[in-house]
Amino acid sequence: MALTTRPRGTNDIVPGEIELWLELEEKIRQVCHAYGYQEIRTPMFEHTELFQRGIGDTTDIVEKEMYTFVDRGQRSITLRPEGTAPVVRAYLENKLGSGALPVKVFYYGPMFRYERPQSGRYRQFTQFGLEVLGSADPLLDVETIVLPLEVYKACGLTGFTVELNSIGCASCRTAYREELIAYFEPQVDGLCSNCKSRLHRNPLRLLDCKNESCQPILNGAPNIADYLCDDCADHFTQVRTYLDALEISYKINPRLVRGFDYYTRTVFEVTYSELGSQNAIGAGGRYDGLVEECGGEHTPAVGFAVGVERLLLALKTQDKLQAGAKRPSAYLVHFGGESKIKAAQVAYFLRSQSLWVELDYLDRSVRAQMKAANRFGSNYVLVFGETELANNQVLIRNMSDGQEQLQSLDELTELMKILA
Predict the structure, then answer these.
(1) Predicted model pTM
(2) Which end of the chain has the least Cβ crowding within 10 Å, N or C?
(3) Contacts of 361 (CB under 8 A, 6+ apart)
(4) Which domain holds residue 149?
């Protein structure tokens, strides 16, 4: 094992690239603040049963992709593969529902899935998402669709598509489930092994299959819209009415069911075709039964999640989200000895005022220090020369126009104003 090679499916975010991440995160926080969402942070690992019960035993994530281990207390622990189930657990454990409803929270952090690494898909990836708990209002379904679109627009991204569907509730899905089984059973020999194993356990999962050999059969499957109960049909109509009123374009995708068992009624996905097969840059839906499944009272809820790496790939295809180049306010050139001590004192003061300043730590020549200042792109150079120090002054050189001036070291606040 090479100590200089990162584990497969992980990524380093290095200086020069991290600025784009921070810029995106700032835009996310601005949009969430405008919509009244507060941040929540949950542990990076949870008890395995939370995901088994919450996501569903027949999903790809639980069956194949979770990082699960037994800790020293013989407890089964799983690195979080998604953010919704942990938020629901935190909602219950911290009694967040005892306050004003609905509870509106967002999260941002690493998730873990043992998948085949490819462009935009990693085994450790970063996810941004939000959850709204405590209301069945269709307007909140629409809000969870609109908010990520606002983030995309704030970043300058265009060309994305909203796909929408309703998968109904537990009541109306019963008849649909039976209809799916009746449709697929005569054609079972043409299905992949995953679909065969799920046919009687969870036939809706078949609609989410990406195996090419299954597609001709799946294309003829019954449409769930024909099986929605009156309440679910009305809910879906209201969702579309709000989207139309807000002039949000979307297309109905009857095959869209999402890969989690907790979803009910509204499901949606935002796609960006330039990314190829892995083209989803956001997805979510309603999950009115998950809080109850995790031990709470019946609590309607809805949410979405965005893979940050994939969103950044989409932004890079359009040269969007260009983070401004960061550069030091000043580079402090010294001659060693007392000159270096004075430079260190001034650097300490300026840094305490949140100014980025650099100085030489390698005892290089003045010429080499000036070259370093240029490499940094420093706005100013402060020269702590022998003559200047004798007069308790520093020489300030403006690197953009070459003009120089002397500044008393007794007036560091004035120096700060020049550099700011």
Answers:
(1) 0.86
(2) N
(3) none
(4) 18-169+229-317
